[in-house]
């Protein structure tokens, strides 16, 4: 089965990225979040789970809704790094159910 995934670009080549408690820091500046309250989301097993909804504001006043299932998940804290030449750093709107670029930062 073919699946298409849509991600949002957070960092370009040369950008400095870090995550602390799920909050993104782009070039040492925290991207602002706005709390949108509690909701429910269907997980990959078809089970509805409680989530927290936030609006993240990227440079250029670009707004994205993001979901958090848990606080301080496995990929919520990433040490600062520089996006390599000819690469992008991307994230999914469902941060706790998608590893995207952060997964490549972990040793395999």
UniProtKB/TrEMBL annotation:
- How is it placed in the membrane, per its record? Single-pass type II membrane protein
Which residues does the UniProt record annotate as the domain Peptidase S26?
A: 2-102
Entries under InterPro entries matching the protein: LexA/Signal_pep-like_sf, Pept_S26A_signal_pept_1, Peptidase_S26
Q: Name one GO molecular function term.
A: serine-type endopeptidase activity
One Pfam entry for this protein is: Peptidase_S26
Gene3D superfamilies named in the record: Umud Fragment, subunit A
Report one GO cellular component.
membrane
* Superkingdom of the organism of origin: Bacteria
Q: What is its EC number?
A: 3.4.21.89
Q: Provide one Gene Ontology biological process annotation.
A: signal peptide processing
Catalytic activity annotation = Cleavage of hydrophobic, N-terminal signal or leader sequences from secreted and periplasmic proteins
Q: Does the keyword Protease apply?
A: yes
As for subcellular location, the record says: Membrane
Q: Which UniProt keywords apply?
A: Hydrolase, Protease
Keyword Membrane among UniProt keywords: no
Chief location of this protein? membrane
> So what family is this one in?
Belongs to the peptidase S26 family.
Designated name of the protein: Signal peptidase I
